[in-house]
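Please fill in the sequence for the structure shown.

STRUCTURE ENCODING:
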């Protein structure tokens, strides 16, 4: 059966011509701005998957599901499903594995700070990666920083 070689979270992910391009890969902590309403603002998240398909498992359709889940359970923050199928390129030596890569990009509004888990399931096998979401609160007026400092003229 094909297997998920790895799953990684990133600031941005693209799949072009069979290659996976990642920026900020290995993301484990994410700071989301807090809106005036108290809700977390939307953040862009890239997800990269690498799938190994054996020589004898090519030209077969396999189901793929994925979801971002809160550590406390409940409905997924987002979820999706699809199918993968790998063919054998001309000239590929017999018996080897083929690698397929998938990039997912999403603008996500997390319901609250805390721990999350992205899971991908392919042909009954699940791989997961963890993410901590933090509330990035704006600076308080009168605090430190260049916009809050009033120096007397010299």
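FILLED IN BY: designer on duty
SEQUENCE:
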């Amino acid at each position: 059966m094909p297997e998920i070689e790895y799953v990684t979270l990133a600031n941005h992910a693209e799949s072009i011509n069979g290659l996976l391009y990642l920026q900020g890969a290995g993301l484990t902590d994410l700071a989301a701005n807090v809106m005036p309403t108290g809700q977390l603002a939307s953040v862009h998240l890239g997800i990269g998957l690498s799938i190994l398909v054996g020589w004898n498992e090519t030209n077969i359709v396999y189901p793929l599901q994925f979801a971002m889940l809160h550590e406390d359970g409940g409905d997924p923050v987002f979820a999706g499903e699809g199918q993968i199928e790998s063919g054998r390129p001309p000239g590929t030596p017999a018996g080897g594995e083929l690698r397929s890569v998938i990039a997912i990009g999403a603008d996500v509004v997390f319901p609250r700070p805390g721990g999350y888990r992205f899971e991908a399931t392919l042909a009954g096998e699940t791989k997961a990666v963890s993410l901590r979401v933090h509330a990035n609160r704006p600076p308080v007026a009168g605090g430190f920083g260049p916009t809050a400092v009033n120096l007397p003229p010299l």
